[in-house]
Design goal:
The protein is α+β, with helices and mostly antiparallel strands. α5 packs across α10, α6 packs across α7 and α10 crosses α12. Helices cover about 45% and strands about 15% of the residues. The chain is globular.
């Protein structure tokens, strides 16, 4: 088993199979969207012809939704998976948010949450696509003022409740819309069916991966993750590699990998954040070049799937610093030109 090549193929980073951003997000199940500008490249680079305009159209039309969900962090999900993921992930996400509130000594009563939720709902309804500043102004008109942390928790809880989600894609600022205006009404789904679909999406797009990887990524209980794997039955199997047990689906992609390709990977990309253990593609001695212990991720360069350097996405010219491999800039021009063309 070549886990690096298999991950590149199944993460759609080599020989991508999809034409549209919506197809990518639907296939991936959920994608980390912490960095507002770079989440677009994370999706686009997994399509056959990366296009910013294609991403914006899918986002604005509600095919792709951004909200705080798994682990209480920003995610991109497809509209058709939205309610399924809310039902599965919201309880644990809400528990994470309340834990952060306690650590910051912030207490929000049910009555306060109800009042602020109503104001947020009205502000978003009036604007269609509202920024956080619009919500602040609506609160001020009710003579309510609060610090950014407190308001952030209110917004996250409104997202997790299914009240609001992402609005129009602006260049630099997130906006919020009413979920009822962006996503079709909820259709009830059995928990086992939802868990099976969720588990399949993870392993199909991140394989090979371990149970521990899935638990970390999903934020679910170990028992739920084991149950999800069991529900997949004969369509998933285990393989051992260097003493670790990995899961692969029976339709795993293994052909199409070609050597000599550089990838300009955005911060918080699923290529790293999908796994608890990242040493397969990121040598431990260089871990600090990709992320710190506080969960802040950097833009990285991969060569044949191995993280080898850092790059600067927001510069006018190609700026890359390799920390292993000794490659020169000529080798990276193809990847940089693809990124520039996308922009």
């Amino acid at each position: 088993m070549n886990p690096v090549a298999i991950r590149l193929l199944n993460q759609q980073l080599i020989a991508p199979q999809f034409d549209t951003p919506a197809e990518v997000v639907r296939y991936m199940g959920a994608m980390q969207a912490q960095e507002y500008r770079m989440m677009r490249w994370a999706v686009a680079m997994r399509t056959r012809k990366p296009s910013y305009n294609a991403f914006k159209q899918a986002f604005d039309e509600g095919e792709i939704i951004r909200l705080h969900l798994m682990r209480g962090t920003w995610q991109l999900v497809s509209a058709e998976d939205y309610w399924m993921l809310i039902d599965l992930c919201a309880p644990k996400a809400l528990a994470a948010i309340k834990s952060w509130m306690r650590s910051n000594r912030i207490s929000i009563s049910e009555e306060e949450e109800k009042i602020i939720r109503k104001i947020i709902f009205q502000a978003v309804s009036d604007k269609g696509s509202a920024t956080k500043e619009d919500i602040v102004q609506s609160l001020a008109r009710k003579d309510i003022r609060m610090d950014e942390h407190r308001l952030s928790y209110h917004i996250r809880m409104a997202e997790i409740s299914g009240t609001i989600c992402s609005g129009e894609l602006l260049p630099l600022k997130a906006t919020y819309a009413l979920t009822s205006n962006k996503v079709k009404p909820k259709v009830k789904m059995d928990k086992d069916e939802a868990l099976m679909r969720f588990t399949r999406k993870y392993f199909q797009s991140r394989q090979p991966a371990t149970l521990e990887d899935f638990v970390w990524w999903s934020g679910l209980n170990v028992s739920d993750c084991r149950r999800g794997i069991d529900l997949l039955g004969h369509t998933i199997h285990e393989e051992k590699w260097q003493g670790r047990e990995f899961y692969l689906t029976d339709d795993c992609r293994t052909r199409g990998f070609r050597k000599g390709k550089f990838l300009l990977i955005p911060p918080y990309d699923e290529y790293l954040i999908s796994y608890k253990s990242r040493d397969i593609v990121l040598p431990p001695e260089y871990r600090h070049r990709a992320h710190n212990n506080s969960g802040i991720f950097q833009p990285v360069v991969a060569y044949d799937g191995i993280i080898s350097g850092n790059w600067s996405p927001f510069k006018d010219n190609c700026q890359i610093e390799f920390f292993q491999g000794g490659y020169d800039m000529e080798h990276v021009k193809e990847a940089w030109h693809e990124y520039i063309k996308y922009k």
